[in-house]
Design brief:
The structure is a homodimer. The first copy, chain A, contains 9 helices and 10 strands. Chain A is of the alpha/beta class and about 240 residues long. Chains A and B meet through α1, α4, α5, β9 and α9 of A and α1, α4, α5, β9 and α9 of B. Chain B binds a DNA duplex (30 and 30 nucleotides) through α1, α3 and β2.
DNA sequence: GTAACTTTGTGCGTTCATTCACAAAGGGGT
DNA sequence: ACCCCTTTGTGAATGAACGCACAAAGTTAC
């Protein structure tokens, strides 16, 4: 479908990265409203539900098109559809989870996947005591099957939830097998060829950022007794 | 310690948020180098290990002070210490994990916490079949004990790993009990009073962002047959 | 001691993101 | 049919982040 991009004069505006990162948040908020039976929402209300400034919300939505009605607001259901379409959630994405530790299990059981068009086609691990276990309706396969599973199911997104040392070699393998998007939970920076996207989620990094702000509130970094912050030497 | 902030003329420069978010990445890269016995590193090498541009790395580090040596580079161990200090990792932070599902378990067993000064003081859940279990050396407590545990242990960071519906009420309780930083894994936008920091990690949001880019590569959003992207009506 | 070389730290122009503030657009009441 | 009220969509202003490119600073070799 969509055999080629419309290459005529009016190209689809590139949506800013910052906006793309917020669209899923809006989507979540909208689905919450929908469940509560709300049919129409103003930018002010939706912005507040999503935790952003309303002008920012309107500008974000304006990048998708003009889907609001002045004096009224946005129709919830229609907006859900438009955002979903823009994010590519109206089609199905096939995912493989690599590494079946606690985190891999948590991911497999996470409801937020299936409901947004992500289908887990396989879970793989190198540990023989894990292979064969049934988790969230799937049987854990041996990592040897990696290429087979990717190709047979048309996996396009790999989720790497292994220890750090295993991540890069496995990443190389999934990329070689045709995967073009990787979600990395391992605590390493993956290097991938041009054209492959990697996003990294690092639990301890988030905590460290919190710690920084926490320290801020408490009065800045712990300084040596004697206490300069640091000296700008400009003689 | 550090009874009050140096309020004299030369205030500590505010470190840009984007820089703060990268410091943990540098720290991780540096620790990797240290383990490999590397004592000194240039901005170019470190930048490449961290996956960023070297000028950006140097500018980031310059916000902490002037810790490099021209013609040589940075001393790994010293830089580790300086970044750790800046992030507040030279002191201990006491954490409570709220919600002991798969994700809570994964977090409890995650090695990246203890090694960076985060001590898990308690794990709590509302489910009686989980309460009393021993996980990662801790006994799961009933959620009734929340306030007690926070106050007795001086918990300053709460990690919320509950279902969405439970998150806001629990967040209110931890904040009321004195917690000023929250790491939220629940799929909701938490509202908190001024002065409390919240960071959100949402597994499905990351996947959705990947899906967007994946769709991009494949030729843009799925359009209706007939195929305009959208119509700008400016009559 | 000096010259050649390496690498940091940063000034500056550019691009990206946020916010304000308002004109234009639509709905509803009379 | 008209006017008033609400809310969108967006110019324009401001601010944050990025990355180039280079002078200043330090090291090494002779």
């Amino acid at each position: 479908m969509s055999p080629r991009q419309n290459s005529s004069s009016t190209r689809k505006a590139g949506i800013p990265e910052a906006t793309v990162a917020r669209l899923p948040v809006y989507l979540r908020a909208l689905q919450g409203l929908k469940e509560r039976g709300i049919a129409t929402v103003s930018s002010e209300e939706l912005a507040s539900a999503a935790g952003v400034n309303s002008a920012k919300l309107r500008k974000d939505l304006s990048h998708l098109g003009s889907y609001g009605t002045r004096g009224v607001g946005y129709e919830v259901e229609y907006l859900v559809y438009q955002i979903s379409r823009e994010l590519g959630l109206t089609q199905d994405w096939v995912v493989a989870i690599i590494g079946v530790g606690n985190l891999g299990r948590a991911l497999a059981g996470y409801g937020g996947f299936a409901s947004r068009g992500f289908r887990v086609a396989g879970m793989l691990d190198a540990d023989d005591s894990v292979v064969g276990q049934h988790i969230a309706g799937l049987t854990v396969e041996h990592i040897d099957q990696l290429e087979t599973i990717i190709k047979d199911n048309g996996v396009s997104i790999a989720v790497i939830a292994t220890p750090g040392a295993a991540a890069q070699p496995l990443c190389d393998r999934v990329v070689a097998a045709g995967v073009t998007s990787v979600l990395n939970f391992a605590p390493v920076v993956l290097s991938v060829p041009e054209g492959v996207d990697v996003r990294k989620v690092d639990l301890s990094i988030e905590l460290q950022i919190l710690a920084f702000h926490e320290q801020r509130k408490a009065g800045g970094p712990v300084t040596e007794p004697g206490g300069h912050e640091y000296i700008e030497v400009h003689p």
